[in-house]
């Protein structure tokens, strides 16, 4: 059974159709890249999978581990193993990162019927994980993303990914706002989390990110559909010739 | 046997004297006739066995009250109150006796559970009879335990207070037992002529607490821990007087996170604090009166006058409040910074949901030299509520070097509520430094979605964000209450989104 199956998905935002019948299949352990110009519907796809309000699905379905994902509340999807790394992670003043991580992790565990972590067990786990990602303890004491640099915000996303152990990670324009060093650090974190059980969907404009996170399959989106899929060489091809060739295909 | 009566019986068996600092549960069957007149005032005074001077004081207040009109400047809207259609004195009603927690409404139990209030205390709050000899090994040190099963806790606490020389008793007893202190201080901060509701309170106040901390004494316990549950028996016109003599310190907490109902809709309390040289009072409030139903019907009108007088040099008064209940809140805990180098603080969280209306804030009146004050106000409006911060900071012309810092933040949840900030600032000398910061923000959909994507429910997400917003104030509360208050805040906002 595929991990994620998006079938003929049609999505509207305020009466305007953004996705016009999108189909995508992701298996366990695969890394997919979704590329495409601005307005092609890449971020819409990631938001609909995660369950962000404001999108109306008019047709099609999304199955996650064979279950109807669209019938689940967004927090249930998270508990089932869907993780969205945000393009612009939000700031939550007054809420220490450590507290946020524990609240979220325990909420997910509770939803799955697992026991919640005690404070000492949680601290042990978070220290282990942050150490393996080279994230300073100091960052965990600060308010969630408050005053974080672009690179720190993305590393915080990677930390959460590592802690929550999702089976599907969607990385929405992870490279935006990062310089090359920060990009490498974040990508290293993502690569460390790749496993035969865990799939990644990497959404990006640029081929650059794919030098660090090497995809198995590349999809090109244009005007709300996947217009071409291929191996990692497709990304290089795009880098050389641009998206214009696909505008008509859509 | 009704619970309250049973309580009294048990206490009598322990030793009445040990219990003098606990709450008073006289069983009286009579009620004052409806309406307010000199007769009503005399009736109350007589019921309380008051000396003549006290009756005189009340009557003067009553006569003054007749000449006053209700204030209308607050941003609250309610039908006109018919003051002749109210009862001004009635004995506390005995609680219905219940034998097991199973008999308590499961909804109420759920609220307690969310608040993290131990079942032992729930039992107390709901009037549950304990089985003889039953003990909870985890119970906290609260004096009310004494009523039911243990001599030791009460005696330890009272012995400790007595040893320290701290006087802590119902004000009705203090009037009889310490008339010299009461006469000296009562009305010295909030005079009988102060304002419509304070004057009304002066005429008809039912009971409240009296605290006197002698010079150089640091009160050996948080009076909060002690006083917590007794509070429910103070009536609608509560009167509290706390005096910290030279170099002393006391921390006092009123209220309860548990939901409180009362058949009397109008509440007009007065609290007076006095600090002498080098003394400090920390006064914390958690208010969770019935806010009315989902259509905005019913709910308590809470018109409160709270004021502290930093009478001595280097003295300090700090107010912390968490206001989540009441249909209408009209409340401005204030500090008169009379002594040189005295300091006033006001930390507030005011939450309104449904149809609640809050008009609250503080006054910092700088009279002495080098006085300083700090105001941190966090207003949260949800549902169809209106939430106003109203604050006055003023420096007298002799108050050289006065300093104030004010930060007023408002958070809106949804688009049918309102947040308003009305600061008044007056500096009558050129050396005063006043800083005022204000922000208003809306809880953002993006922030909520971020939390929800991480596994939180909508309500958990709102609770988390709001608790982050109010963190600076929460940490001013005594520890054990901070945790409960945090949960209370989340509960107050349930159903405010989505």
Describe the structure.
- The complex is a heterodimer of chains A (250) and B (498).
- Chain A is α/β, with parallel strands linked by helices and 250 residues long.
- Chain A is 38% helix and 28% strand.
- Chain A has a single domain, classed as P-loop containing nucleotide triphosphate hydrolases (Rossmann fold, 3-Layer(aba) Sandwich), CATH 3.40.50.
- In chain A, strands 6-9-10-3-11-12 form a 6-stranded mixed sheet, with helices on both faces. In chain A, strands 2-1-4-5 form a 4-stranded antiparallel sheet, with helices on one face.
- Chain A is globular and about 55 Å long.
- The mean pLDDT of chain A is 91.
- By secondary structure, chain B is of the alpha/beta class.
- The radius of gyration of chain B is 22 Å and the shape is globular.
- At the A-B interface, helix 2, strand 7 and helix 3 of A face helix 12 and helix 13 of B.
Task: Spell out the blueprint of helices and strands.
The complex is a heterodimer of chains A (250) and B (498).
Chain A: E1 4-13, E2 16-26, E3 31-35, H1 42-50, E4 56-64, E5 67-68, H2 74-80, E6 82-85, E7 92-96, H3 97-111, H4 119-132, H5 137-141, E8 143-144, H6 150-164, E9 168-172, H7 180-193, E10 199-204, E11 217-222, E12 225-230, H8 233-241, H9 244-249
Parallel strand pairs in A: 3-10, 3-11, 6-9, 9-10
Antiparallel strand pairs in A: 1-2, 1-4, 4-5, 7-8, 11-12
Helix pairs in contact in A: 2-3, 6-7
Chain B: H1 3-14, H2 38-47, H3 52-66, H4 106-115, H5 119-125, H6 145-148, H7 151-164, E1 167-170, H8 171-177, H9 179-185, H10 196-204, E2 209-213, H11 223-227, E3 239-244, E4 249-255, E5 266-267, E6 270-275, E7 280-287, E8 301-310, E9 316-323, E10 328-331, E11 334-337, E12 343-352, E13 357-366, E14 372-381, E15 386-395, E16 403-412, E17 418-427, E18 433-442, H12 445-453, H13 458-469, H14 471-474, H15 479-492
Parallel strand pairs in B: 2-3, 3-6, 4-7, 5-8, 6-8, 7-9, 8-10, 8-11, 9-12, 10-13, 11-13, 12-14, 13-15, 14-16, 15-17, 16-18
Antiparallel strand pairs in B: 1-2
Helix pairs in contact in B: 2-3, 3-10, 8-9, 12-13, 13-15
């Amino acid at each position: 059974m595929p991990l994620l199956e998006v079938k003929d998905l049609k999505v509207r935002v305020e009466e305007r159709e953004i996705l016009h019948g999108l189909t995508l299949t992701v298996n366990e352990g695969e890394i997919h890249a979704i590329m495409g110009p601005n307005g092609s519907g890449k971020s819409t796809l990631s938001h609909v999978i995660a369950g962000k309000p404001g999108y109306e699905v008019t047709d099609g379905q999304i199955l996650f581990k064979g279950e109807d994902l669209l019938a689940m509340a967004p927090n249930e999807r998270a508990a089932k193993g869907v993780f969205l790394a945000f393009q612009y992670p939000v700031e939550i003043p007054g809420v220490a990162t450590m507290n946020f991580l524990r609240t979220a992790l325990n909420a997910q565990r509770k939803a799955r019927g697992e026991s919640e972590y005690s404070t000492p067990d949680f601290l042990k786990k978070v220290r282990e994980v942050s150490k393996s990602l080279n994230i300073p303890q100091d960052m965990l004491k600060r308010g969630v993303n408050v005053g974080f640099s672009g690179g720190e915000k993305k590393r915080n996303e990677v930390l959460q990914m590592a802690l929550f152990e999702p089976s599907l990670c969607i990385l929405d324009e992870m490279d935006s706002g990062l310089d090359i060093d920060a990009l490498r650090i974040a990508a290293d974190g993502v690569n460390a989390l790749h496993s035969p059980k865990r799939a990644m969907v990497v959404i990006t404009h640029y081929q650059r990110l794919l030098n660090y996170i090497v995809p198995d399959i590349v999809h090109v989106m244009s005007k709300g559909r996947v217009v071409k899929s291929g191996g990692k060489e497709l990304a290089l091809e795009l880098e050389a010739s641009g998206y214009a060739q696909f505008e008509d295909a859509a | 046997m009704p619970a309250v009566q049973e309580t009294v019986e048990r206490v009598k068996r322990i030793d009445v004297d040990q219990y003098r600092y606990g709450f008073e549960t006289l069983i009286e069957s009579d009620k004052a006739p409806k309406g307010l007149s000199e007769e009503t005032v005399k009736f109350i005074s007589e019921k309380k066995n008051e000396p003549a001077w006290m009756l005189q004081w009340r009557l003067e207040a009553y006569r003054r009250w007749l000449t006053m009109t209700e204030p209308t400047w607050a941003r609250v809207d309610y039908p006109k109150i018919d003051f002749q259609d109210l009862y001004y004195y009635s004995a506390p009603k005995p609680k219905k006796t219940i034998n097991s927690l199973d008999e308590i409404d499961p909804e109420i139990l759920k609220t307690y559970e969310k608040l993290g209030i131990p079942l032992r205390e729930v039992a107390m709050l709901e009037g549950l009879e304990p089985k003889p000899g039953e003990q909870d090994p985890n119970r906290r040190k609260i004096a009310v335990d004494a009523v039911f099963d243990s001599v030791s806790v009460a005696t330890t606490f009272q012995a400790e207070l007595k040893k320290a020389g701290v006087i802590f008793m119902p004000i009705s007893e203090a009037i009889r037992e310490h008339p010299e202190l009461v006469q000296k201080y009562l009305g010295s901060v909030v005079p009988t002529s102060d304002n419509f509701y304070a004057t009304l309170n002066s005429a008809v106040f039912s009971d409240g607490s009296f605290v006197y901390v002698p010079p150089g004494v640091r009160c050996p316990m948080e009076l909060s821990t002690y006083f917590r549950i007794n509070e429910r028996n103070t009536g609608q016109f509560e009167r509290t007087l706390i005096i910290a003599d030279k170099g002393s310190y006391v921390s006092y907490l009123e209220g309860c996170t548990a939901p409180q109902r009362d058949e009397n809709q109008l509440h007009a309390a007065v609290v007076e604090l006095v600090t002498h040289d080098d003394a400090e009072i920390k006064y914390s409030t958690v208010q969770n009166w019935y806010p009315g139903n989902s259509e905005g019907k019913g709910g308590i009108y809470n018109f409160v006058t709270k004021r502290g007088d930093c009478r001595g040099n280097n003295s300090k008064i700090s107010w912390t409040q968490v206001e989540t209940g009441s249909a209408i809140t009209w409340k401005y805990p204030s500090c008169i910074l009379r002594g040189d180098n005295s300091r006033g603080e006001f930390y507030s969280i005011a939450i309104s949901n449904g149809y609640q209306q809050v008009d609250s804030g503080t006054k910092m009146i700088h009279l002495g030299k080098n006085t300083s004050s700090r105001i941190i106000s966090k207003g949260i409006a949800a549902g169809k509520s209106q939430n106003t911060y109203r604050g006055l900071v003023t420096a007298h012309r002799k108050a050289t070097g006065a300093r104030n810092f004010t930060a007023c933040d408002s958070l809106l949840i949804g688009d049918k509520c309102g947040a308003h900030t009305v600061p008044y600032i007056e500096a009558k000398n050129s050396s005063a430094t006043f800083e005022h910061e204000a922000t208003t923000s809306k809880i953002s959909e993006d922030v909520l979605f971020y939390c929800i994507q991480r596994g939180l429910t909508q309500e958990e997400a709102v609770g988390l964000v709001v608790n982050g917003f109010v963190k600076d104030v929460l940490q001013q509360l005594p520890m054990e209450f901070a945790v409960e208050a945090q949960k209370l805040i989340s509960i107050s906002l349930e159903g405010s989104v989505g």
